[in-house]
Amino acid sequence: MVSVVVGLGNPGGEYRRTRHNSGFRVVTTLADELGVRMRSSSGDYLIGTGSVSGRDVSFVLPLTYMNLSGFAVAHILEQRAESPASILVVCDDVNMPLGWLRVRGRGGDGGNRGLESIIRMLGTEEFARLRLGIGGPAEGVDLTDFVLQEFAADEAPIAAAMEAEARDVARTVIVDGLDAAMNMYNKRLGSEGPTAA
To answer: pLDDT per residue over 123-171, tens digit each?
Structure first.
């Protein structure tokens, strides 16, 4: 079962509202909702532990930049003598339309430098990840510039709803398991995009 939830993003106020920090925002807000206080660690990350339906869960925000996220994750697993199967990584995905969610138990990095770093440091793709669709750049727009932009005014409500649902998905993974979350949420993505339950 998942006992560590990791939100990917870049540290610093200038990145707080960017597309690339969607994972950070989900985990930060979820921890806040649960009354979990985040504190700094010697492993270059913030961490806080709380209870979700009787299960002890740690919430983690790496304080390195996105492409070095794997160092924090590897440090946590080493400190706790836990396997990669105990983590859920929450991150953005430029390969999915804005508002889409996808939870999986394994897979590649999909071009996300944070996932790439974690896979490299752990030596495996066998860990759960919750991807948040942030859309892709228009033709001629640099990918790095795109992910470091804030959502446009007409996109912001969609992004906020997606992040709220992502918190529900994370709770389901923690309490009911990965399979239950995949069955409950992944099937809701039809040809026209996310649909209501």
So the answer is: 999 999 999 999 999 999 999 999 999 999 999 999 999 999 999 999 9
According to the model, what pLDDT value does residue 71 have? 95
Residue 23 has pLDDT above 80, yes or no: yes
CATH superfamily for 4-194 is: Peptidyl-tRNA hydrolase (3.40.50.1470)
Task: Decide: residue 27, CB within 10 A, 0-12 exposed, 13-18 middle, 19+ buried.
Answer: buried
Look at residue 81 in the predicted model and tell me its pLDDT.
Answer: 86
Report how far apart, in Å, the C-alpha atoms of 133 and of each of 3, 22, 26, 41 are. Answer: 24, 9, 13, 30
Annotated domain spans of the chain: 4-194
Catalytic residue among 20, 102, 167, 171: 20
Q: Sign (positive/negative) of CA torsion 27, 29, 35, 41?
A: positive
* Three-state secondary-structure class, residue 194: strand
pTM for the full model? 0.93
Q: What is the DSSP letter of 162?
A: H
Query: Residue 91: enclosing H or E segment and its boundaries?
Result: strand 87-93
| Nearest by Cα to 151 from 92, 194, 191, 95 | 92
Element (H, E) at 185: helix 178-185
Whether 20 is catalytic: yes
Cα angle: 165, vertex 124, 159; to 5 degrees: 20
Looking up tokens 């138990």 gives 105
